[in-house]
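Record 1 of the preview.
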Amino acid sequence: MTKIEIGDGNIMEMSRISSEDELESCLGLLWDCLIAEGSQKMVGFDLQWRPKGDVKGFLTPELLHLLLCTDVTCFVVHSRFLSNANLKKFLAQKEITFVGIHIAKDLAKLEHDYGIVFRNVVDISKHAANVLRRPRLRAGSVSELAYEVINLKLNEKPIGAVYDPFFPFGSGKTMEYAAIDAYASFKIGKKLHGRPIQRVQLFILTTVIFIWFMLLVLLCFSLASF
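->
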């Protein structure tokens, strides 16, 4: 277990899963944390990749770790455990909202390569852009979103921090970066939970009703003039 100090003063515990039994235990701990939260069950997630050479000599991204994060803990699941049936069931829970940033391609790869399907997942980069009405946030980095939404300043990753080809299971430092990203996704998701979509929908509904009302008024005047 590694303790990571976050920029907001929080200290998160990062645990690396090393066996199926450990994975089952961690899933139980995650459930206990989520039950304690009540109806607002949310988990931040991130994926850690490394380059892999194909038969033609080209480098392609290979999934190394799936990270699942709450307010105080982050579990690092190696890709060799992603076929675990209980893990798949956990990730497919409707009552849990999984939040991440720029995740469309990641979700497609998880489904294609591992048969993992999320039934309740939110890309908070798009979510934040809608709430704050700042379209540029759709392309924003984790650091930008964290600063804009929750006023959390994350340390910039050094060049090459995304990939770590010299360590078969990833170095501690690169996992820390990924864990902080998953934590930031969780905190941003909590901040935005339930507010943006409802407000945007209400605004659209109010606008539509107003337009229909004005059209009806104009129609009545037109009919009265004949």
